[in-house]
Amino acid sequence: MGVRVLLDEDVPFDLTESLRLRGIDAVHVTELRAKVWGGKPRISDAEVCAEVAREPTLLITLNVRDYADRAFQQANVIRHGIAVVIVRVPKRESRARDRPAAIHDIVHRWIHRAPALLATAPMVATANRGGVRPFPLPSSQPSSQPSSTALASPSP
């Protein structure tokens, strides 16, 4: 695929291996903890964004609170020029036993679009079973944001 995908610490670790089996260069934050952050037990979102910016990488997270925040976007997403996809699990599947399978299914439905998403950085998008929907960043964004319909359809 040619795109590095970094899975945030809130994404199930086993998704990393299932993406690798599809030929995707997937790395989980916990795998980088010792190498990049010297084994720190807690890694800030700002530190994750800086690592994502080091080489072309698409960040996958469940962290709506921070990555949907306008000030955070300005300070981290736009500043570092990164692409972030926030996975949104339906409420009916948000119970602990259902959540990992739902996350896997949602990511596998759209991951083949990772190169197109990365090409639009800086960007933040949400993903669910219906597709991927970019949303507007604060005013310093480039005007090349794709329309939500261009990325919204799930894979067959």
Which short descriptors sum up this protein?
globular; single chain; 40% helix; 8 helices; 156 residues; alpha/beta; six-stranded mixed beta sheet
How would you characterize this protein structure?
The chain has 8 helices and 6 strands, in the order βαβααβααβααββα. Helices cover 40% and strands 19% of the residues. It has helices spanning 14-21, 29-37, 45-54, 64-67, 70-80, 99-110, 114-118, 148-151, and strands spanning 4-7, 25-28, 57-61, 83-87, 123-128, 131-135. Helix 3 (45-54) packs parallel to helix 5. The protein has one domain. The protein has a 6-stranded mixed sheet with strand order 2-1-3-4-5-6, with helices on both faces.
